[in-house]
Amino acid sequence: MTDPIHRGRSTTAAIDATTTVDATTATAATIEAYGLTKSYGKSAVRVLDGIDLRVGPGSVFSLLGPNGAGKTTTVRILATLTEADSGTARVAGYDVVADRSAVRRSISLTGQFAAVDETQTGEENLRMMARLTGANRADARRRAAELLERFDLTAAARRPAGTYSGGMRRRLDLAAGLVGSPEPRVLFLDEPTTGLDPRSRQQLWEVVRELAERGATVLLTTQYLEEADHLADRIALIDKGRIAAEGTAADLKSRVGGHRLDLALTSREAYLRLAGRAVHHSPETLTLGIPTDGSAAHVRALLDETDPTGRDIDRFSLHSATLDDVFLALTSSEAPAHV
Ligand SMILES: Nc1ncnc2c1ncn2[C@@H]1O[C@H](COP(=O)(O)OP(=O)(O)OP(=O)(O)O)[C@@H](O)[C@H]1O
Ligand SMILES: [Mg+2]
Predict the structure, then answer these.
(1) The organism sits in which domain of life (predicted)?
(2) Burial of 210 (0-12, 13-18, 19+ CB in 10 A)
(3) Using an 8 Å Cβ cutoff, are 14 and 2 in contact?
(4) Cβ distance 161 to 116 under 8 Å?
(5) CATH architecture of the domain with range 5-247
């Protein structure tokens, strides 16, 4: 859908919003949501089933979840593109329904909705967007040049955006989201690095970190656990419209014991007997991963307990828990509770 949000802000408006918020609600969260629900259609299941969020100023918060979890729907509600059926949300101190235009002035939105004109060059797109936000010709040229440089698009600046690769296009989208307000107070990034090669992803991470360091509050959605681990101060795992877990990457990893003991089993029977305790399953290799704190005492106890006869475990290895482990443990309906 074409949306005017990321084109309609002026820097002044964004600064005004900052001043108001700082003066009145200095310690408040920049993004807060309580009990958001949303269904589509009449008999439809709930796409959001009571989402609560609090994101502190200047932090990077990641909504991490599989396809259809409700990430984009949450972002769209917070960015005022759609309304929740129930619940409330405030962004930069403003209610997303009652103060919609103030919210829009405080945010930059980049994601699945970003629209650039494919027939125009990257430079023309950015200049036009800057002009739309009220910049004069010289400022528009300067801002476009700065953003092209920052996103490593200078060499491609004179080519039509339609000829850009997926990664270049993604960077242009993000630049377009920043052209109206180079220092937005709140930045929503919906799967900003999907489809990017590792180098482009790194570059984008750097930009996000830089924006957060300068005080922006960033809410980003991702399906990449690694991305959330690298970038986010806090992570919410979202699954089937609910927050399954929330915390720092370390908090979340500690929920599965901090480490994982992988057991390569000698038989299918042993595999099936122990599968219920595992957070990681690899039936092809008859390997199961079981949460542990990694201490010798616990590992020894686990080995004794899972294989009292000494015949069922062929080999074992110890790994640091990854967000993958947490994610699988907390979101998959098959994966049972553990330790
Ligand atoms: N306009 C709509 N009409 C009907 N159903 C919708 C609409 N928008 C989203 N949905 C449904 O709501 C659910 C959540 O969608 P949403 O886009 O929020 O998920 P997501 O977490 O962003 O997924 P993805 O990782 O695929 O982007 C999905 O089942 C989707 O099909
Ligand atoms: Mg989505």
Answers:
(1) Bacteria
(2) exposed
(3) no
(4) yes
(5) 3-Layer(aba) Sandwich (3.40)
Starting from the CA of residue 239, give the closest ligand.
1
Among 67, 72, 191, 221, residue to substitute to test ligand 1 (most atoms within 8 Å of Cβ):
72
Joined tokens for residue 47: 């796409």
Residue of 71, 193, 220, 223 best suited for mutating to test ligand 1, as the one with most atoms within 8 Å of CB = 71
Q: Give the C-alpha separation, 252 to 105, whole Å.
A: 34
The amino acid at 20? T
How sure is the predictor about 24, in pLDDT bands with cuts at 50, 70 and 90? very low
Query: Domain residue spans in the chain?
Result: 5-247, 254-331
Q: What is the 3-state secondary structure (H, E, C) of 273-330?
A: HHHHHCCEEEHHHCEEEEEECCCHHHHHHHHHHHCCCCCCEEEEEEEECCHHHHHHHH
Contact 184, 106 (CB under 8 A): yes
Nearest CA among 233, 230, 204 for reference residue 219: 233
Q: Is 172 within 8 Å of 201 (Cβ atoms)?
A: no
CA 240 to chain centre: 16
pLDDT of residue 280: 83
Q: Which of 84, 112, 94, 78 is nearest to 3 (CA)?
A: 112
Instruction: For residue range 239-286, list pLDDT tens digits in order.
Output: 889 998 899 988 888 877 788 899 999 999 999 999 988 888 899 999
Q: Which CATH number fits domain 254-331: 1.20.1070, 3.40.50, 3.30.70, 3.40.710?
A: 3.30.70
Q: Name which of 151, 167, 150, 169 is nearest 159 in CA terms.
A: 169
Ligand 1 site residues, Cβ closer than 6 angstroms: 40, 47, 65, 67-73, 223
Name, in order, each residue with C-beta under 8 angstroms of 14's C-beta and a sequence gap of 6 or more: 105, 106, 181, 183, 184, 185
> Which residues on neighbouring strands pair with residue 242, listed in sequence order?
239
**Cβ atoms of 62 and 221 closer than 8 Å:** yes
Locate 95 and state its tokens. Answer: 């209610």
Name the pairing type of β-strands 313-320 and 259-265. antiparallel
